[in-house]
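fyi for ur records
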Amino acid sequence: MPDWADWTSALSGVPALWVRAECPLAVCEGRERDRGDRQLGLARGQYASVHLGVAYDMVIDTQDVPPEENARFIIQGMRRHWGEAV
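which gave:
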């Protein structure tokens, strides 16, 4: 799995906004189960480590905040980084 340095190197010169999507483990496991195309247990196995060493620009809550509101929040973050033309 690529580490943070690999991603930052690969995206050098490309505008990128790093967004951490958070929800409780139980919610991740429920989504994993509901999708039906995931190997059960991956969410639990990756939950504690998936965000290690990543410097995020912002964090969104995918449990309690509707997708539309999270999208608006991300657009606001993009505008803060790159201006109103976004």
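The mean pLDDT is 92. thats all i got for now
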